[in-house]
Q: What sequence folds into this?
């Protein structure tokens, strides 16, 4: 595919997205109908779509409209590329710009234009003096981090082996974390990955997990396990019995294979089974949330979020943390995590959970794109006095 044909494909995908189709589903649908597209073409189209979603507000302003064609022409202008050089109508290129499209002149670039208006105040209140810098940071693609399975290898050994596969990494201050700086698309074919020496896991999550004093023995429940990344990460820190649960068991479909690859033993439990293994020494709740901390990776989420869905998430979060509190005994702990930067989902939920009770907050930590990678929140709660 030519560069112009890739732009045309991205316009098609964006139009499907604007009609309500999820971005990944729209990309898959396009790819199925474009058998001629190679892997590099599909990757390029995907990058165009996600770049457009990160910057949709400014791109629409510079393109003169909300349609996929307008957004892509505006994105090119944001990138310093004259859209008329690709909108030629030749071959599979988009049709030439009309005189109106060619003469669009937008206002000055503003990163806040790429955040839904109703979220401006909550984000400013939550981020304080760092709000402008954080929002500006969300324009760029997120870095890719790996968690080294320290039960199998060291970061140095993994870095050397990845380099032989054409994947360049750099060390971080955290011994388990490597940042991929080149060759990220080769990762899933690398034997380092297929042998379970690494898992993809953001730096903020790794920092949050490293900051917890996990019980060395006993029972730990990953209550909202999802794909199980934190279940596997916890295994690096403890010999406790690990239990994994998710309200939607389909989310854990790949966990058994990943755990076997990593050499991690765990017990999968249904919602009905969870109380039968209580009390747990620690319950981890990585709750459903707005995902505002991951908007660089999943920019479509910010455009789909509504005040009503955020309020519904808040109710779910309160219910989940209350359920978790009921699963530990005196001296037991609950770890509450979100990938959100909104205080209503973070400290607000925790404050309600401990109000008027014997529960106490042992620590709270916030990570963000400026100091880690994704926005992330973790709080450690304890039921009464410590018995550790």
A:
């Amino acid at each position: 595919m030519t560069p112009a044909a890739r732009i045309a494909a991205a316009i098609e995908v964006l139009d499907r997205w604007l009609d309500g189709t999820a971005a990944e589903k729209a990309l898959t649908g396009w790819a199925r109908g474009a058998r001629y597209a190679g892997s590099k073409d599909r990757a390029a189209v995907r990058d165009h779509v996600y770049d457009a979603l990160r910057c949709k507000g400014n791109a629409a302003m510079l393109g003169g409209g909300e349609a996929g064609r307008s957004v892509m022409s505006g994105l090119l202008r944001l990138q310093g590329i004259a859209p008329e050089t690709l909108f030629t109508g030749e071959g599979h290129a988009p049709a030439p710009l009309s005189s109106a499209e060619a003469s669009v002149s937008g206002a000055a670039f503003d990163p806040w234009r790429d955040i839904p208006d109703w979220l401006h105040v909550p984000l400013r209140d939550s981020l304080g003096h760092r709000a402008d810098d954080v929002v500006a940071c969300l324009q760029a693609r997120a870095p890719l981090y790996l968690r080294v399975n320290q039960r199998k290898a060291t970061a140095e050994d993994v870095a050397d082996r990845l380099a032989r596969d054409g994947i360049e990494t750099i060390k971080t201050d955290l011994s388990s974390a490597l940042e991929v700086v080149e060759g990220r698309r080769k990762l899933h074919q690398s034997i380092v990955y297929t042998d379970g020496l690494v898992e993809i896991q953001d730096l903020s999550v790794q920092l949050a997990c490293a900051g917890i004093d996990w019980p060395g023995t006993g029972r730990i429940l990953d209550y909202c396990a999802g794909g199980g990344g934190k279940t596997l990460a916890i295994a690096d820190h403890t010999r406790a019995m690990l239990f994994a649960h998710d309200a939607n068991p389909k989310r854990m479909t790949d966990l058994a294979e990943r755990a076997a690859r990593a050499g991690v033993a765990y017990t999968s439990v249904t919602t009905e089974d969870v109380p039968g293994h209580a009390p747990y020494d620690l319950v981890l709740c990585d709750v459903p949330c707005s995902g505002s901390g991951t908007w660089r990776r999943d920019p479509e989420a910010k455009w789909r979020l509504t005040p009503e869905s955020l309020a519904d998430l808040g109710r779910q979060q309160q219910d989940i943390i209350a359920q978790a509190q009921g699963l530990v005994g005196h001296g037991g702990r609950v770890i509450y995590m979100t990938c959100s930067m909104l205080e209503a989902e973070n400290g607000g939920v925790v404050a309600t959970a401990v109000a008027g009770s014997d529960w106490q907050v042992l620590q709270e930590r916030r990570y963000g794109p400026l100091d880690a990678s994704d926005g992330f929140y973790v709080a450690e709660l304890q039921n009464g006095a410590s018995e550790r």
The longest strand covers residues 328-338. The radius of gyration is 23 Å.
